[in-house]
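Hi, here's the filled form for the chain we discussed.

Project: internal
Contact: R.S.
Residues: 176
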Amino acid sequence: MSFLARLRRLVKAPDAATESPAPIYLDLRDRVIHTAPGAVGIVPSAEAPNVWGVLFEVALDKGSATIVALADGTTSLYTSGGGGTIGGGEHEHIATMSRKLVQLADAHFEAFPPAETLPLPTEGRSALVLLTYAGPRRVEDGSRTLAQGRGALSRVYMAAQDVLTHLRLEEESRRA
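And the returned structure, exactly as it came back:
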């Protein structure tokens, strides 16, 4: 199953009357973006001297999803309908994947321009947001371009997709 198909299964549509993301989604996203890394014990390391977190955001026809991966292994998935998974990093293999995603993103640090605003991507597009010690950086591209390996940052995209896959598998295992 493709990455976008997996997300479509996870994302509940926002309230049809407002078409706005659920307040809890926006609140959780905002909290991560505005967290001071030192306040949660995250400091620069040799493996990730610039980046302390990655948000991978995907817009779909009915809503959006944000995958959060932090340098300490914290991993979550928020969906615009108010659902998601918090605490994925409690599983060591997922925490390891999140740390590797942050390190890979740090290796591509210069390819991400600084971002003054962090809008959600538009339908059919994906955004990668680097949470850095000097402020956020962001790129947005077509989801298909990234998934097919044509985007300059496809490796970061694919690493984020791997985190999502393992979050989904862990959630399915927990429900079984």
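Let me know if anything looks off before we file it.
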